Amino acid sequence: MVDSRKPVRKKSAVVVGAAPARRGTLRFVLIMGALVLINLYVFLWKKGTSLPEVQKRAEAASLTKPNDVTTPPDAGVGPGGVPVAPAVAPPTITGKVAKGDSLGKLCKRVGLSSADTDEIIRALHDVLDFKALRVGQAFTIERGADGRVTRFELIVSKTVRVSATRDASGELVGDKAEDATRAEVHELGGRVTGSLNASVKAAGEQGQLVGFFVDVFAYDLDFYVDSHDGDTFKAVVEKEFKDQEFLRYHRILAAEYKGKAGSFRAFWWQAPGAKTGAYFDDQGRALEKTLLKTPLKFANVSSKFDRKRMHPVLHTIKAHLGVDYAAPVGTPVWAAAPGVVESRGPAGGAGNMVVLRHQGGLETLYMHLSKFADKVKVGDRIEAKTVIGYVGTTGLSTGPHLHFGVKQDGAFVDPTKLAPARSAGIGKRDLPAFQAAIAPLAARLDKLAIADAPPSAAVAAANP
Prior knowledge:
Elements: H1 18-45, H2 51-64, E1 76-77, E2 83-84, E3 92-96, H3 103-109, H4 114-124, E4 138-143, E5 149-155, E6 160-166, E7 172-178, E8 182-191, H5 196-202, H6 208-216, H7 223-226, E9 232-242, E10 245-259, E11 262-269, E12 278-280, E13 300-303, E14 323-326, E15 332-334, E16 339-346, E17 352-358, E18 362-372, E19 381-382, E20 387-391, E21 401-408, E22 411-413, H8 431-447, H9 457-462
Antiparallel strand pairs: 1-2, 3-4, 4-5, 5-6, 6-7, 8-9, 9-10, 10-11, 11-12, 13-14, 14-21, 15-20, 16-17, 16-19, 17-18, 18-20, 18-21, 21-22
Helix pairs in contact: 3-4
């Protein structure tokens, strides 16, 4: 049979991409050619970067630079691969002792090596008390060309400086220098206006004198309540000078405080053969008594002894068996009399408390302390005015204050009504020598004139 179907013609497959591949190859060849031309330009023909010029500069540098000089391993590299020298330590370093500095920490802080630090410490070992390092003391460090320390100097005070200087043998040698000073005896005085502190400064003196008056008359006066406008103060005092600069007070040889609370005088005297001296009045009686007038400086009585007081925290009637002194947290608290530390520690509502036992069946209690003095331990025998702790607000307390309690033969008594006895005065045998020694001092106090107080505003208005 004859097949009448028409033959089917197969279509050939179309190959896509043959022409673009040829175009891509051509583009690649052109790009590579351009890059080759650019490199040839940069390395063969361009001025400054061509290989011949780089070679010429290298040869010129080798003629001027010694062959044994190499770039330090810690040197940086600048633009174009040029070495950059490392930073050079300054030849002189000055500064001040910072908080928390020991001598070793100070040296490390300013960048000294361990070797230099050890040398300085060894050199100063015999001329500097390392515990005397204080914030703000100035120092100077000098280095030599090799970077080693050639001199270290520390200004310890206005008159004392220590140094470690490298000698001819190459070792640091310590030295201590003290400037010459002189002591002079001066009289001073003034009238209280506002406060004793402000009045002493108005008289041209330093605030340290205020502490002396508070300390020496602490058995007779509480300056927070017993000091009034119009009171007068006088003193004969040793002063130390460096050239014309006042440095510090030494002993107060004689002092007087006179006002509404009474008239009080104090004279320093040390008996022949005695290890130390003390203050006495003009009759030779000791100023020290069995109990201080107040166990801390400049405090305000915020609550008195009261057996029927309303408790500020518990809000119930509860006996207040002591005196409260309001003062800032951290105010030092004194031992009110010589004695033995009987106990020290937390005591419930009393907070941190110290109890001292004294002669004659007397006990004193100090409550609500923020912390205790580090060097005072249970069993220690301490003197009056020894700091035993610091004002706080621990326990049942509405604010920072010291609760001061006193027991006589086991029973609480009002500290403000307790009549303290005087310590031993000057014996009959030494009394004539004492009177002879204080006579010129008493005369100087007598001759020291104090200006009259200015009239008050009310009096001035009434008498124009």
